[in-house]
Amino acid sequence: MKGESGVKVRKLAVLAAVLAALPVLGGGALQAAGRGPVEPGRIVLERQGAFAAGGTVLGDPAKSSLHCDHGYVEYQIPVKARKTALFMWHSSSALVWQQRWDGGEGFRDIFLKRGFATYLWDGPRVGRANWGCEEYTYKPGIGRDQGNFTAWRFGKTFGEWFPGVQFPKDDKRAYEQAMRARYEEFDIVKNVRLEAEAGAKAIDEVGPSVVLTNSAGGLRALLAATQSSNVKGIVAYENPGFPFPEGAGPDRPEGPFGPIRVTEEEFNRLTKIPLQFVWGDNIADSTTWPASLKQCEQFVELINQRGGNAKILKLTDVGLKGNTHIPFMDMNNRAVADQLSAFLKQNGLDRR
Amino acid sequence: MKGESGVKVRKLAVLAAVLAALPVLGGGALQAAGRGPVEPGRIVLERQGAFAAGGTVLGDPAKSSLHCDHGYVEYQIPVKARKTALFMWHSSSALVWQQRWDGGEGFRDIFLKRGFATYLWDGPRVGRANWGCEEYTYKPGIGRDQGNFTAWRFGKTFGEWFPGVQFPKDDKRAYEQAMRARYEEFDIVKNVRLEAEAGAKAIDEVGPSVVLTNSAGGLRALLAATQSSNVKGIVAYENPGFPFPEGAGPDRPEGPFGPIRVTEEEFNRLTKIPLQFVWGDNIADSTTWPASLKQCEQFVELINQRGGNAKILKLTDVGLKGNTHIPFMDMNNRAVADQLSAFLKQNGLDRR
Known about the structure:
The structure is a homodimer. The first copy, chain A, is an alpha/beta fold. Helix content of chain A is 33%, strand content 22%. Chain A has helices at residues 3-7, 9-21, 28-32, 95-98, 107-113, 144-151, 172-180, 189-206, 217-225, 264-269, 289-305, 333-346; strands at 43-60, 64-78, 85-89, 118-122, 136-138, 209-214, 231-237, 243-245, 260-262, 274-279, 309-314. In chain A, the strands form 2 sheets. An 8-stranded mixed sheet of chain A has the order 1-2-4-3-6-7-10-11. Chain A has a two-stranded parallel sheet with strand order 8-9. In chain A, α8 (189-206) crosses α9 (217-225). Chain A starts with a helix and ends in a 6-residue tail after the last helix.
């Protein structure tokens, strides 16, 4: 490991010894779940809680009504927090920010220890915000497990793990937990827009934030950034879809995985903040991801042509191998975190 | 205020002064949300995270499958935690454990500061566990806002607040947040049993736990206690439904708000742990709650006839007035917490 993690190896060894001496923290499988390596330090909270943001009201609130279509924000603010918060936008389950694949320390905890306030977001109709304003039908999709395996780039085809993949492939509990780290995400254009609008409102309540996204959360966050000046940057892990102004980008209809059409004015707002698009390993060996990376390059080029600050970070270019579609959950998530810390520092977004 | 809260008033005044001097923690409305009174001390975490528990697999996991019907557990373990954890089972939204009505400190935080590990539970199909094994249709219910108002005993009829109700009735944001603190709960008998079974498995992963419940969560937890010996006690806030053996309890078919039929053996397991049923104020003035309290009395009598330890705590009997259907969210939630601390101490469930 390099950078911040590297210099703290000795501290970590001391901490590991301390942890080993502690009494059991929970029973059974929880106790068995992975622990090392963990970020040094403790999480000391100034405040935590949750609130609803965005949404609408159906009916007459004085007579017969329903408050619905809000999102759900779960927040934790450490003592002496840095000025800019991290707003975490998943595309499968809030769990992705809460855990490493093996049950070890998640990205949220690493960044709480590094001094950032964190906000976990379930957009309208998603997860703890599933109190929507419209009827919908959920259907269980047999085969989604196998779809996850390839979409998340555990391997090229189901059951054939990529060599060196950053997933504990012999840990049956980790695999089961991964398959259960999902809930309905409502990937249709209308909901992308609905979630983006509520997300912008949530971020306006939070204040200055860098939005961290995974997969289809990235498109939603880019749209939210056109609506809230409190979005001070976006770091998008493996984002397949992008907004484009009319006449630019892929020549096909709008879709929940891009493109989404925005006005010139909206698009140009995205040139005012730093954007980083992070990609894991083994992309060339997957069926779908090369096209997404290509669309990403197209988007980045257009942003930069207009004076913006968008960059692509291929983790393999900085020596990180085997990362999946959810790199911040991977076994080397502290090294992935070091890359984020570097981005935040370079852009003045880690000030206290 | 009485008891633990009372003797800490001076400490609290000091803390309030310290808090007032701190920098802004978040932007806009979050900053404006209620803060005082808060429990003295800080939340210092040993560990936190989330995991799935229970569930099944549809299809062939080697070929085409779906992991589904698990529940979602979000846990926080403070340093030097007490031996018994608190497992929190909502019936509207996880938010009820995370906040006071005005956005002030929630029950979870109070008990983290008092040294308990806490586990927030979304049962199968609920909230962050809505990755079910069966198709279902959600329909928005216009009028639910007004239903909440009376069911949660903000007032006898919609818009007419009970005098002295422990809700900040002039705080428009608090009212809006309350109406949005809901998601689909799947109140049918089949799901009650499904959630209870997964809950028992979750608690077996956690280890020795006292289950705190609200409303229809109580019935689920009572069923879970017949399946897991790690349930060391239940404190049920305003529980409308109960399990009964054949031939006992209300003479009507099974329903999601009780009764649910259990075997004699299952029922007798409930006589082995302390059970407390907590009720708020203004019950006689509501349409539905007097019948629930009566069923509760019937259940408690039967448990105690069989040598069990079940008690009813009417908050008005200990001087607490104006409590709603969700007493632990009420403005006097620290006084409600003191009652829980007393129960835990009396039953040896607060040992370190």
